[in-house]
Amino acid sequence: MTQILLIGGSDNSGGAGVSADMETVYGLGAKPTFAITAITAQSDHLFFHTHTVPSKTLKAQLQATEMNQVGAIKIGMLPNKESIGVVSEFLSEHSEIPSVLDPVFTSSSGGTLSSYEGIASLGSQLFPLINIITPNILEACRLTKLGCVQKEDLETLAHACRKMGANAVLVKGGHLPGKHCVDFLLSKDRGNCFFERKRIPGGTEVRGTGCRLASAIAYHLAMGYNIMESVDRSCRYLSSYIEERVQCT
Length: 249
Ligand code: PLP
Known about the structure:
The chain is of the alpha/beta class. The protein has 8 helices and 9 strands. It has a 6-stranded mixed β-sheet. A 3-stranded antiparallel β-sheet has the order 7-8-9, with helices on both faces. It is globular. Pyridoxal-5'-phosphate binds near residues 17 and 104.
């Protein structure tokens, strides 16, 4: 069975982070393995504490992974420059395996997930080693120091991320107002594309959607789909997940 390596933070509430990644990978039919970068204490509404896993322990988890079984790597919370350095070294040694980075900086429960220095080093240290990055508008604006008020700005943000070294960028536009959610994909070899779908009322209340989308993309890349197909299938997977969750609440 194909394995997906999940590198990221734990969220004890089960809403986001590696547990959300694991649910996604299991749900799609692959086996998750993981390396924890930080342990967070949070509920759906409050953020209490973060413990950054020491570099030595992060490295040991990665070294213990049987990489011959791994079909793709998904990376989420990277708490600081040191963890980014460890992951960067690891990816350099496994450049044949497709990878997805969801650059998360804050939690909707109110916590900070990455240090200022960490965020500033992402472009140079990590982007060129990753197949596709999946920032939302707020994260893309923070990375590029640009603004975004309309659909067309998604393209500008994606091009700016590419200039920073990213091979492919999916800018998630769910934060823009409107009846539809629009994401923009820009990739080196496959051109660009808008993905548009009807907004699901109450969907923004569902936690861990960014984690789940990036994990689904990693899964589809591992299954041999190209970036465009992987993003398309993963967006549809996420919409069904959100619809199901909204109906449950
Ligand atoms: N907590 C952890 C550990 C995460 O990795 C993430 C996202 O990747 C979040 C929280 C943020 O999720 P949300 O915005 O749904 O709170």
